[in-house]
Write a structure and sequence with these properties.
By secondary structure, this protein is α/β, with parallel strands linked by helices. About 20% of the residues lie in helices and about 20% in strands.
Length: about 500
C-alpha cells in the first residue's frame, strides 16, 4: 500500500505542476491493440506441476481438456494471464495428439498431429473439425490463437505415407482449422536440417499464417520464422539465455522468413534484445499437489512464480515494438560475466546433487542495431546490460540480474546509451542507478517527458524529475523504480518495467 500511496501523490504533484497546451495528458502510452508478435504461453510446466514434476509420462497424463477448461483447483489453465492473453497464443505441449492411455516415452503415436478424441472428447467430427472447434473455443476465451507441440517426426503408424505428403496434409489441416502455432521440438528429425527446411517450405505454401518454430541448432534460425533458445534451469537461466541469444545474433534470416528468436520465459531479456516470449511459468504458486518443492520454478533466486508482472510488462512492450529477425546486427562486449549456483534439494528439474555448483557465463553487454551501451562499473556483481533499437526506432534497455551463490543480485549501475530520435518510445527494464540517453540532436523546445508502468494504462509527467542537458536526458533510479512499479501487484517481486515518451 505504501508504494501505491506514494505513486498517487507523486502523480498528482507532477500533473499539478502544469504542462503546456501542446503537451496535454497523452493517454496510455501502450496501444490498445494486441501485437502481432509470436508470443505464447506453453502448458509444459503446468502439466508437470499438477503431477509433481516426476517424469514425462505424468506430464503427458495432464494434457486433457478437463485440465485446460475445467474449474478444479489445478485446472482452468485457459484463464491464466487474463490481462495479456489477447496478445498470446495458447500452446498445448506434448501429447495433445496421442491417446490418453499412451503416455510412455517412445510410442508410435508421437508425431500424429491430430487432436486426440480421448483427451478432448467434447470436440467431435473429422480431424480438421475437431481442431477447428478447439481453436475457436480458445479464441472465444480471449486468446490470440491456439498452437501445439510437434514431435519432429512422422508418426510410425503411417509407414507407407511419404514424408512430404504426410506433412502437407497436417499443414493444410492446421490452415483450415485456423491453428496458429507449431512448436517443433525433439524427435527423430530434431537435428535434421533438411527435414526442418522442408517443414518451413511446406508451411509457407500450405499454411502461410502458421508460425513454425524450430530449435536445436543455432544456424536453423536463418530459415525459421521463429527459433527457440531451448530449455534452461531457471536458477541460472539468465546467463545461459543471454549467451545463446548473443551467439545467434551473428546469423542473418534468409529471404522470406522472419528469423525471430524466442528466448522463452525471460521477458526482460526479450525486450532488451528484440526477442519473442514463450511463457513457461504459471500462476499456481507454492508446492506441487503432494507438497513437493516445484523444481521447475523453485522459490529461490529469481523466483519466477513471484514475478508475473514482468511477463505482463514484456508482452505489452511488444504492442509498442515488436520482436525482429536476426540480421547480423548484434554487438557483444568482450568482457564476460560468470554466474554460479550452489544447489539445494529440488532446485532444478535436472536433478542436481545437493551442494553441486553450476557455472554459466555470458557477455557483460549486448546490443542490437545500435552501439554498445557505456558502463563504467567493472565490479564482479554488476548486471548484464542489454539494449536494442527496434526497426520502428523504439529503444529498449534492460539490466538483468545475476545468479551468485544462492542469491539473485540486482545491483544498480549507471548506463549510457545512444538513442535514435527524441520522439521514439523508450523502454527501461530492471534496476538502474541511472540511464542516460544521448540523441543526435539537442532536446526539442518545450519537451515534456511522460512515463508509464507497462503493466498499467496511465502515464505521469516526469519532466521535473529527469535531467535534460543539450542532446542528453538522464533518468534517475528513483523515477525508474517508482514509475516502473506503479502498477505492481501486491507481493510481486518483478523488477521495474516502463515506457517513456518525449512529447513536444
Amino acid at each position: 500500500m505504501k508504494r501505491l500511496i506514494l505513486t498517487a501523490t507523486s502523480a498528482l504533484m507532477l500533473l499539478a505542476s502544469g504542462c503546456s497546451d501542446s503537451a496535454k495528458h497523452p493517454g496510455s502510452l501502450v496501444p490498445d491493440t494486441p501485437s502481432d508478435a509470436p508470443d505464447y504461453m506453453c502448458t509444459w510446466n503446468i502439466q508437470g506441476f499438477v503431477h509433481d514434476q516426476v517424469g514425462p509420462e505424468r506430464f503427458r497424463e495432464a494434457m486433457t481438456e478437463d485440465y485446460i477448461f475445467g474449474e478444479g483447483k489445478y485446472e482452468n489453465w485457459i484463464n491464466f494471464f487474463p490481462s495479456i492473453k489477447e496478445d498470446l497464443y495458447f500452446v498445448m505441449d506434448d501429447s495433445w495428439d496421442i491417446p490418453a492411455d499412451v503416455n510412455n516415452g517412445d510410442n508410435n503415436y508421437l508425431g500424429t498431429v491430430e487432436l486426440d478424441q480421448t483427451r478432448f472428447p467434447s470436440f467431435t467430427g473429422t480431424s480438421v473439425e475437431r481442431l477447428a472447434k478447439l481453436t475457436r473455443k480458445i479464441k472465444d476465451m480471449g486468446w490470440k490463437g491456439a498452437g501445439g507441440w510437434i514431435c519432429a517426426q512422422k508418426s510410425d503408424r503411417y509407414p507407407d505415407v511419404p514424408e512430404e505428403e504426410f506433412w502437407t496434409e497436417r499443414l493444410k489441416a492446421a490452415n483450415e482449422a485456423g491453428f496458429s502455432y507449431w512448436k517443433v521440438d525433439w524427435g527423430h528429425n530434431q537435428r535434421n536440417e533438411q527435414w526442418r527446411k522442408m517443414l518451413t517450405r511446406l508451411g509457407k505454401e500450405h499454411a502461410p499464417e502458421l508460425w513454425i518454430e524450430h530449435a536445436m541448432e543455432f544456424e536453423y534460425v536463418e530459415f525459421s520464422d521463429v527459433f527457440r533458445t531451448y530449455d534452461v534451469e531457471n536458477v541460472i537461466a539468465q546467463p545461459l539465455t543471454i549467451r545463446r541469444v548473443s551467439e545467434m545474433l551473428a546469423y542473418k534470416a534468409q529471404e522470406g522468413v522472419k528469423g525471430i528468436i524466442n528466448c522463452e520465459d525471460e521477458p526482460y531479456i526479450a525486450a532488451g534484445l528484440g526477442c519473442a516470449i514463450g511463457i513457461m511459468r504459471h500462476p499456481i504458486d507454492g508446492p506441487t499437489p503432494s507438497g513437493l518443492k516445484d523444481n521447475a520454478f523453485p522459490p529461490v533466486g529469481h523466483n519466477y512464480k513471484k514475478c508475473l508482472d514482468e511477463i505482463v510488462r514484456g508482452v505489452r512492450w511488444h504492442r509498442i515494438a515488436e520482436p525482429f529477425g536476426v540480421n547480423n546486427d548484434g554487438q557483444c562486449d568482450p568482457t564476460r560475466l560468470e554466474d554460479y549456483w550452489i544447489y539445494n534439494d529440488r532446485d532444478s528439474w535436472v536433478g542436481r546433487d545437493e551442494g553441486s555448483i553450476m557455472r554459466e557465463e555470458a557477455p557483460a553487454i549486448v546490443s542490437r542495431a545500435m552501439p554498445l551501451p557505456e558502463v563504467k562499473d567493472t565490479s564482479s556483481d554488476r548486471p548484464y546490460i542489454l539494449a536494442s533499437t527496434y526497426p520502428n526506432g523504439a529503444l529498449a534497455v534492460a539490466a538483468i540480474g545475476r545468479a551468485l551463490g544462492r542469491e539473485y543480485v540486482t545491483k544498480e549501475i549507471d548506463v549510457k546509451v545512444k538513442g535514435s530520435e527524441w520522439d521514439a518510445p523508450v523502454g527501461l527494464f530492471g534496476y538502474f542507478k541511472s540511464v542516460t540517453i544521448e540523441y543526435p540532436s539537442v532536446a526539442p523546445e518545450k519537451a515534456r517527458i511522460w512515463a508509464q508502468d507497462l503493466a498499467g494504462d496511465t502515464p505521469v509527467d516526469i519532466t521535473a524529475e529527469v535531467k535534460i542537458e543539450g542532446n542528453k536526458i538522464t533518468i534517475p533510479s528513483e523515477v525508474i523504480r517508482r514509475v516502473g512499479l506503479m502498477n505492481a501487484t501486491e507481493g510481486d517481486l518483478s523488477g521495474p518495467g516502463l515506457v517513456m515518451k518525449v512529447l513536444y
